[in-house]
Each structure stands twice: as structure tokens, then as C-alpha cells.
Amino acid sequence: MKLSLSLPRLLATAALFVSISSCSENLDSSGVCSVLCPPIGGDVQNITLDAVVLDTTVQSLSGLGTEPGLLLAARGDTLDTRVVMRFDSLPVRFVPTGDTSQLIKSVDSAYIQLRIDTLSIKATEPVTIEAYDVDTTANDTSSAAILALFRPDRFISSQTFARAELTDTLKYYISNSALLAKIQDTLPLRIGLRATGPGSSQVRIISTEGGSGPLIYFRATSDTTTKPLVVVPFSRTPAGESIAAGHLTDYTVVAKAPAAAPPGLLAVGGLPARRVYLRFDIPSSIIDSATVVRATLLLNQLPNTALDPTDTVEILPQVVLAGKVVTDPTKAAQIIASVSVDTLKLKPGDTGLTNIELARAFTLWRTQKPDTLPRAIVLRSLSEGNSPLEIRFSSSEDVVALRPRLRISYTSRVPLGLP
After folding, report:
1. How many angstroms separate the CA atoms of 56 and 300, rounded?
2. How far, in Å, CA of 333 to CA of 61, rounded?
3. For the segment 263-316, what is each residue's pLDDT rounded down to a tens digit?
4. Is the pTM of this model over 0.90?
5. 80: which strand partners?
6. Distance between CA atoms of 159 and 369, rounded to whole angstroms?
7. How far, in Å, are 75, 155, 194 from residue 198 at the CA level?
8. Residue in 192, 187, 180 with CA at minimum distance from that of residue 218
9. Distance from C-alpha of 75 to C-alpha of 311, rounded to nearest angstrom
10. CA 142: distance to chain centroid?
11. Cβ–Cβ < 8 Å for 273, 86
């Protein structure tokens, strides 16, 4: 779909409003920005509007493998996620100490170095990580095809870790013979990791996008004085799509995830990742002819106890920059910019009124007509794609008292020019 021709101007405007909006949310600006934000005259009026004309849950289209982390989890019938790492370019020669280049005819001490987000670990009992050969000619984005390869005839190796051994840098040893066979046959090595064990477990592995992806180390001889070879993740497919192939060097495959929110609710987070899109109809007299002191989106949070109800999820409100020509909310929800420097910290199991500040969005909307830039925002999780946790809210389909509302504090007297 062709995007609005005004998008470049909207992006420039978004950059501008971030720099000037810090004063707009400060009720007492007399000692901070008396020049940039002259005193507001007149009484501050408060109004609560049923301004939401469209609210819906949409999928995040960031793409498979774009997350900064790889979620490896085995949490019974609630959550099962696997990790895939592609090493499509393996070395076939090495240089022994004090010698010349030779073909690799043996592999010794092969292991994958994994960087772990230790704060993400959920395990009290030993965790066994199994490795499988998941190389296939099936569609690169087919999770079903990959999951079908976690079977006995594709098994490579396994290693068990006590909870205390799950540190920030993990050595996961793999079969020397399996790696050698791939090297000698000049085939890609694509490894799928699966967690098992007597108890529930979950760990987040830093991905290539996160800045410290998995690495394979091995020696091509038993001579310990020979420097180990290092193999970095690399994907040759999809052919002719370098960006997509880059993302697929490592990624998470979801075998089972908690049930999605029922229809009619708004949901942020979860697996696969979801966002909330809200579009408003706000009187032009408030946006064009008033100074908005504060604008608060009022949402009714609903409890979600499916998984880790007391954990914290950080939610970020963002303003939609997609022009009116982008009519699909899912596509519009991907073209966004920050509207707040603060994140909202919520727990999935909580319930009740939630306030989300949106005054900065009004600074942008004041510079654009609604037929150019719809008044819309997106709520997304900062751990999008990395966490199965989902925050739920009542939608405009709920009873009147629980529907989303917009509370605005404004003054009708707008100062013009500098004093």
C-alpha cells in the first residue's frame, strides 16, 4: 500500500515536537522555561470525552527474528518456545600452529557460546537443553516445518545445567562429529534448542540483533596450542532477501503460547506480539484553539492470570505517523514515534483504572490537520517478542463505565509570541 506523501514532513514534525513538548506537561513552568513557555492565562478547564472512534488489537509486524532476545522456555502446557540458530557458512580449512593451511579433518571441543539475560531466568531445578538439526528446504517462516524437526533422528546433543550454572555466559557443548559432518559435506549447520527438565524453566538468550549473538568455537585438531576457530551466525536464505536472511540468523519459534485475549478486549504483548491501536475524534476547538495542559487516556485494566501475573510489563505509548491513506490499523500501527519519555509499568494480574499521559501527542496534532494525520496512538510492550506476558484492557465494546476515555485539561487563552 502506498503511504501518504506527507510522511517525510510528519517525521520532521515528530522530531520537532519531542524537543519542545517538555514544557507542555509541566504545570509549573515559571522557573524552568519562562521564555519558551510563557505563563498560561485563564482558568484551566477539565473535560472527559468518549473520544475513541476505533480501538483494536493488532499484530506487531516487526518480523521473525527481529527481537533482541531469544526466548527458550518449557513451562508445561502454558508456554513452549524453541530457539533456532543458523550457521550457513562453516570453515573448511584451518592453519595449525607453525604450519600452512590444511583441510579440516577433525573437530575437537566444539561448543556454542550463549549470552544470557540472567534477570530473565525462571528456574529452580536443573534445566536440560537439547540440540537438534533443523536444516530444511521448507519455507523459512514456517514454524510448523521447523517444529517437526525436533525429533529423535535429528538429535545432536544435550547438556544439563544446575540453576547456579546459568550465568551470563554459557558454554553449550555440541557433538564434534555432527559439526565435522556438516563441514566435510559443505552443508549449513542449523541448530534448534529445546529446554526440558523436571521443572518449569525460561531463559532469554541475547540474539544477534541484541548485539551479542551465539558463536561456535572449536579446534580442528586436538593440539590445544592451536587457536580455536570461531563461527558467527549467518543465513543464506531467503535467497535474494538479505535483510530477512539477516534477521533469520537466530530467532524464536513458538510451539505453544498462553491463550490470546478473548475477542472484544485490547491486548498488549504476548506471543505472537500484539499492540493496541486507538484513534480519537477530538474537538478542533481543543487542539487548534486551546493550550492543552494535560491529556490522559483512561483505560480499565482487566486481570490476566495465565502466566506470571505479578511480573512487570513496561508499556510505551507512541503516536501514529501513518497518514490517512493508510487505512489498515495493523499497517498504521507500525509507523509510530515516541510520545512519552516514561514507560507505564503494569502487572498482568492487576485490575482497575490505568492512566496514560498523551499531552505530547497534542503538540504534534496541532501542527497537522486530521485529514492529513489521524489522531491515533499505539500501545506496545518494550519486551515485544521477548516476553509471553500480556496486558489486557476493556475496549469500546464494553459497558459504558469501562470503555476507554480521554480526560483533557486545557485553557482557552493561548499566549502568542514572546513577552
Report:
1. 15
2. 9
3. 999 999 999 999 999 999 999 989 988 999 999 999 999 999 999 999 999 999
4. no
5. 74, 256
6. 60
7. 10, 20, 14
8. 180
9. 16
10. 20
11. no
